[in-house]
Design a protein that fits this description.
Elements (H helix, E strand, L loop, with lengths): L1 H8 L6 H7 L1 H15 L3 H9 L2 H11 L7 H21 L10 H22 L4 H24 L1 H10 L2 H20 L5 H18 L3
Helix pairs in contact: 1-3, 3-6, 4-6, 5-6, 6-8, 7-8, 8-9, 8-10, 8-11, 10-11
Length: 210
């Protein structure tokens, strides 16, 4: 089932941009179905990992790089990051190998830069809806970076070199606020709560502020 939906949603790498720009509705719906299938389901996570789900999500994110602040771009970015978080959290360390190449470590760094861009736009924007969208975007970006750092020693060391301890501590605080928001929405299954708690603790530990 998971593999079938993957094949339905994602086209070949040569036509990724067409998939993103001309079939946004199908893509968003398909990503939502995949995310529901992966919810606390290791078998589905393994299946999605086996059919290169992480790479497919990254390709879609790259294709939407210039559309993060469009409504459809926001939805797709958040859904792709949520899927990748779910895969890495359930599959574990071996799922981080493809992120350990120089290019993909740079991708993680680019996510941090994207987070800074979101925060900068938020400072200049007083619209409540936009503020909430950008806060959600930041929350998922921080969660993804944190989960990768927990499961990959190489990525963890690379990010520690690229970031100040105060930046890492700030990420812990952002994630605490984001989980509080998720908890209010009822997104607080034991596995999800444990993931947030472990990621926050990891940020605090490497920042020197446990």
């Amino acid at each position: 089932m998971t593999k079938f939906i993957m094949e339905l949603v994602f086209e070949t790498s040569e036509s990724k941009k067409k998939c993103v720009h001309d079939r946004e509705v199908v893509l968003v719906l398909g990503l939502k179905v995949l995310l529901n299938l992966l919810h606390c389901n290791e078998n589905s996570a393994e299946c999605l990992y086996a059919v290169n789900g992480l790479e497919m999500c990254m390709n879609v994110m790259r294709a939407f790089d210039n559309h993060v602040f469009d409504s459809s771009g926001f939805d797709i970015l958040v859904l792709c990051i949520s899927l990748m978080v779910s895969i890495v959290e359930q599959v574990g360390e071996r799922s981080t190998i493809q992120f350990e190449s120089s290019n993909d470590v740079q991708l993680v760094w680019k996510l941090k830069e994207m987070m800074e861009t979101v925060k900068e736009r938020e400072r200049n924007d007083i619209q409540i809806g936009d503020h909430m969208e950008r806060s959600i975007c930041i929350g998922y970006l921080v969660l993804f970076i944190g989960v990768l750092m927990r499961y990959s020693f190489k990525i963890n060391e690379s990010m520690k070199k690229m970031m100040l301890s105060n930046d890492i501590l700030k990420m812990a605080e952002i994630l605490e606020e984001f989980f509080a928001f998720q908890d209010e929405l009822g997104i607080n299954a034991p596995q999800i709560k444990a993931m947030y708690e472990e990621t926050i603790a990891h940020f605090r530990e490497i920042s020197g502020n446990e």
